[in-house]
Amino acid sequence: MISRIFPWIVAVALLSVAGCKDVNGPNDGDSPSSIVFPLSGVSYAQHVQPLFNQTCAITGCHGDGTQTSALRLMTYDQLMFGGTLVVIRNQPDQSMLVLRIEGRIGERMPMNRRPLNQNQINGIRAWIGEGALNN
User: Fold this and answer.
1) What is the largest CA-CA distance in the chain?
2) Alpha helices of the chain — where are they, by DSSP H?
3) Domain spans, the chain
4) Residue 123: which residues within 8 A CB-CB, separation 6 or more?
5) Is the pLDDT of residue 63 over 50?
6) What is the DSSP letter of 41?
7) How far out from the chain centre does Cα 119 lie?
8) Contacts for 91 with CB less than 8 Å, ≥ 6 apart
9) What does the alpha-carbon distance between residue 51 and residue 94 come to, in Å, rounded to a whole number?
10) Is residue 113 within 8 Å of residue 23, measured between CB atoms?
11) If DSSP codes are grouped into helix, strand and coil, which group holds residue 56?
């Protein structure tokens, strides 16, 4: 049982270490609302990564540059193979990414910024449910 829970504890700790500094100023509403996800057929390149670029993969959060979190969200490989179990293919309810953006575990992401809207959360859930492909 401990061996199944330990990766979750490590992932929560890594994602919660210091959080995101809002070095780019407060989110004024223009972003992330400009990214709209379809109900199905979600594309990593057209939907997920552009959303990350606007809301997560920024200096002080999960981008390249100064930050305290080990998780980087600049590329698909960083998300899927960066050493932190964030996405479990076909299992959005067990994926740390979904749990964090929904605020069900730890502090809601993106930290110190407006939450993702329901369409974006549903889109990320759909992308993971569809296999979290690099498409």
Assistant:
1) 44
2) 2-16, 49-55, 76-81, 96-101, 118-129
3) 38-135
4) 37, 38, 42, 47, 48, 51
5) yes
6) -
7) 14
8) 128, 129
9) 21
10) no
11) coil
Are 134 and 43 a contacting pair, CB within 8 Å?
A: no
Residues in the chain: 135
64 vs 24, 29, 45, 77, CA distance in Å? 14, 23, 19, 14
Per the CB < 8 A criterion, the answer to whether 116 and 51 are in contact is yes
pTM of the predicted model over 0.90: no
Candidates 129, 131, 126; CA nearest to 47 is: 126
Q: Is residue 94 helix, strand or coil?
A: helix
pLDDT per residue over 75-112, tens digit each?
A: 999 999 987 889 999 999 999 999 999 999 999 999 88
SS3 27: coil
